[in-house]
Amino acid sequence: MHFLKKIIIISFVWLSLAFVPAVLAQTATDRFEVEAIIVDGNERVTDATIEAYLPIKIGDKIDLQALDQAISSLFATNLFENVSISRDGNQVIVEIAENPIINRINIEGNDVLTDERLLAELDIQPRRVYTAAVARGGAQRLLDIYRLSGRFAASVVPKIIRLENNRIDLVFEVDEGPLIKIQSIRFLGNKSFSDYALRQTISSRVERWWAFLSATDKYDPGRLDYDVRLLRQFYLSRGYADIDVVRAQGGLLSDRSGFAVTFSLKEGERYQLRDISFTSEIESVDVSLLRDLIPLEAGDWYDVRAIEQGLLNITNELGNFGYAFVNVTPEVVTDPETKKLDVQINIGAATKNFVERIEVINNSRTLDNVVRRELEIVEGDAYNQLKIDRSLRKVRGLGFFRTVDVQTKQGSTPDQSVVQFDVEEQPTGDFSVGVGYSSIDKTTLSLGIKERNFLGTGRATNFSLSTSDTRTDYRIGITEPYLFDRNLRGGIELFNEKVTETSAEIETQGLATTASFNAARDYYHRFGYRYVSKDTKQESSKATSVTGDEGKTLTESAISYTLGRDTLNNRFDPSEGYLFEAKQDYSGVGGDVNYLRSVLSAKYYKPYLFNSIILGVRGKYGLVDGIDEKVSQSARFALGGRDVRGFDGGGIGPRDDGTDSAVGGNNMYSGSIELISSLGLSDDLGVRWTVFSDFGSVWKTDYPDGVIGANDDKMRQSVGFGFLWDTAIGPLTFYWADAISKTSYDKTKRFQFNIGTRF
Predict the structure, then answer these.
(1) Where does 237-367 have alpha helices with state H?
(2) Pick from 167, 171, 173, 157: which is nearest to 102 by CA?
(3) CATH architecture of 354-425
(4) Least confident of 63-72, 438-447, 521-530, 592-601
(5) Closest by CA position to 334, among listed 264, 275, 419
(6) Please, which residues bridge with residue 312 across strands?
(7) What's the CA dihedral at 433, 439, 441, 443 to 10 degrees?
(8) pLDDT of res. 213
(9) pLDDT per residue over 556-590, tens digit each?
(10) Which residues are CB-contacts of 26 (< 8 A; sequence separation ≥ 6)?
């Protein structure tokens, strides 16, 4: 057996050696020199294009393996549905079938999401070459969109409809499935705070039948990531420096009726601040002056929000000294045994900078110079963060942009900076329709059209009309913010008002012009001229008072001057800053009426709880003197309406005993305290609530006969609430107010409602 085994092995070796030359000869025979390349089956793609994609050229010596590689190269272009390559002598034959061209893309079966919305999300266009990978990628993108909208049971199946000339229609058949919402939210590991407190912190919400306008109860993995950050911020702002949100996950319930969301936490210890220290690589900076910029004291609970605000304050302060690029970082060291922590603020190296260039980006409608003329810095100035911040506030205050951000980038050299104002434009035209009800005018209707940024020039135009049973008022005007390309604001307004009282019909018409300019440190000066003609026609003998205007046509020619300071962050919807004005009007530059009117007014807004609640306070005081003559009704103050909600316009103060109409007063004051917030409401709703208390009084008339309350300076007061809703069609406001302090002759107005649209 052993001998036989040896014979077999020897025979096998000899046979193998005998075949090696034959194999080598066969390989040598299979290699050939390419004399020609013939392409067949192509319709759109030219022979030259196909030959360019081939790794084989005429004159190459190739084998069968090279042909296989050539097939792979052509498939990789995604131009071909089928490829085969063969040899005919020394010729290479390339036979192809081209992929079809997409003629049209359709979506079928969708109802909740429109064709326009879905097609806009697809990275597929007609006349593109179709491949199976393109169809699969499109279907997956549509599925992702449906899952983001809470429809995790959705399915998308791509299908093709073949057309002539190797074209296809690509159809995505959609089954949207039910809307799957969050059914439960729970927390694991929380000991210091209840589940309820943590649920109020995050943005996700359990499904509620009344919150049909909200999207926060839809399951969204991206929102869960945001909720993790909110939970960390919540704990870090309350002393829990070691907080760790281990996991946030959502699981589909067994019956697929909704999601159960779970957050796992490790709270750690709660720490008090022991010390704040500084290190600085900028030798000229006195770090002892920076400590007060951090709103935390030793013994306070650690609050990451206060630290972040302090870092921002320090960065801005360094910017005021010309250091544009400073790396300011905190280092927190905790001591679990004492439950104390230390914070070290590290200030990196920096050099003083100059502004090389200022850029305004993403303004497609508003002209660059409209933004630039609000800036307090120009190219070539030393970098100054304070001026940049004031410039940012002024640009935001224009009201033309939804958002305004400023970024500072390094210029062509390390000591040069590029200041970039990035704006997002918003509609600046307002069309509003309002309705109100009062005890005098009954139903009041109003119509208004405003354009605050006419043709992107910053000019403002307005037209308004209001009408009721007793009053008709219309106005039209235009304002040029930079008259003659100077720091001079000019405007003109034409107006006509007709009031029908029990005893008289009063028609007022005229024009008002203003010119103002800004000075340093947010101060401004305003000059004005007003010409008014007032015609009073007696219609009844019931009137017992004399106002000074009865049966007369009086002309008023007056000049005015206003000194003010404005630091409000938005002139239309402020949330921070103040406004102070002192104004005087002198009538007697011609005309029939002589008086000197003085008015002091102020507004103040301050955010609290990290901008979640806005406190608004405003006040006004005025008096008018007839300059050696009695003050007629046309020159007196009226009070109510917007100044003191809960009262009708002119509803406060002296009234005619016979007609019950307002006669006004020589003295006036008013004020308001208001809170504005969206706390307790979903951010998705775009609704803010407000609670307020308004107060004021108007008194004293030089014609007291037949007047009720001629010298009654009793303070009137109202309390109320309201809603400010930024709807899809425009802003909506609703106020309800109750006059809790009033006199028997005052006229009230319980609610005001206004809705408009933007363009």
Answers:
(1) 304-320
(2) 167
(3) Roll (3.10)
(4) 438-447
(5) 275
(6) none
(7) 40
(8) 47
(9) 899 999 999 999 887 777 889 999 999 999 998 98
(10) none
Q: How far apart are the C-alpha atoms of 637 and 653, rounded to whole Å?
A: 9
Could you please report the per-residue DSSP string of 604-639?
Answer: EEEEETTTTEEEEEEEEEEEEE-SSSPPPGGGSB-B
Whether residue 176 is predicted with pLDDT greater than 50 in this model: the reply is: yes
Fold of 181-266: Ubiquitin-like (UB roll) (3.10.20)
- Tokens describing residue 298: 């030793």
- When pLDDT is averaged across residues 413-437 and rounded to a whole number, the result is 85
Backbone angles phi, psi at 684, to 5 degrees: -65, -25
Q: Which architecture characterizes domain 101-175 according to CATH?
A: Roll (3.10)
Find out if CATH 2.40.160.50 is the number for domain 429-758: yes
Cβ atoms of 365 and 335 within 8 Å: the answer is: no
Mean pLDDT of 26-48: 77
Structure tokens at 628: 């050696």
Calculate the CA 713 to chain-centre distance. Answer: 44
Averaged confidence pLDDT in the chain: 84
**Selection from 530, 450, 525 nearest residue 492 by Cα:** 530
3-state secondary structure of 92: strand
Per residue in 265-309, pLDDT tens?
A: 999 999 999 999 999 988 888 888 888 899 889 999 999 999 998
CA distance 157 to 174: 7
Paired with 260 in beta bridges are 184, 251
State which amino acid sits at residue 685: L
Structure tokens at 170: 């690509």
Query: What b/e sequence results for 335-348 when a residue is b if at least 16 CB atoms lie within 10 Å of its CB, and e otherwise?
Result: eeeeebbebebebe
In this prediction the pTM is 0.54
Select from 570, 626, 620, 605 the least CA-distant residue to 677: 605
Give just the sign of the alpha carbon dihedral 756, 735, 654, 699: negative
Matching CATH number, 272-347, of 3.30.10.20, 3.30.450.150, 3.40.50.2300, 3.10.20.310: 3.10.20.310
Angle between helices 221-236 and 304-320 (to 10 degrees): 80
- Residue 257: CB atoms within 10 A of its CB come to 12
Q: Which two tokens stand for residue 415?
A: 């000591």
**Residue 32 vs residue 442, higher pLDDT:** 32
Q: What are the CA-CA distances from residue 217 to residues 148, 617, 730 (Å)?
A: 12, 36, 25
CATH 3.10.20.310 fits 32-99, yes or no: yes
Give mean pLDDT, residues 22-27: 41
Distances (CA, A) of 389 to 155, 519, 523, 725: 50, 17, 16, 29
The pLDDT of residue 35 is above 80: yes
Copy the structure tokens of residue 130. Answer: 């179709």
2-16, 57-71, 239-253, 711-725: range with lowest mean pLDDT: 2-16
Domain ranges (residues) in the chain: 1-30, 32-99, 101-175, 181-266, 272-347, 354-425, 429-758
The radius of gyration of the chain from alpha carbons, rounded to an integer in Å, stands at: 39
The b/e string for 221-242 (b: 16+ C-beta within 10 A; e otherwise) is eebbeebbebbbbbbbbbbbbb
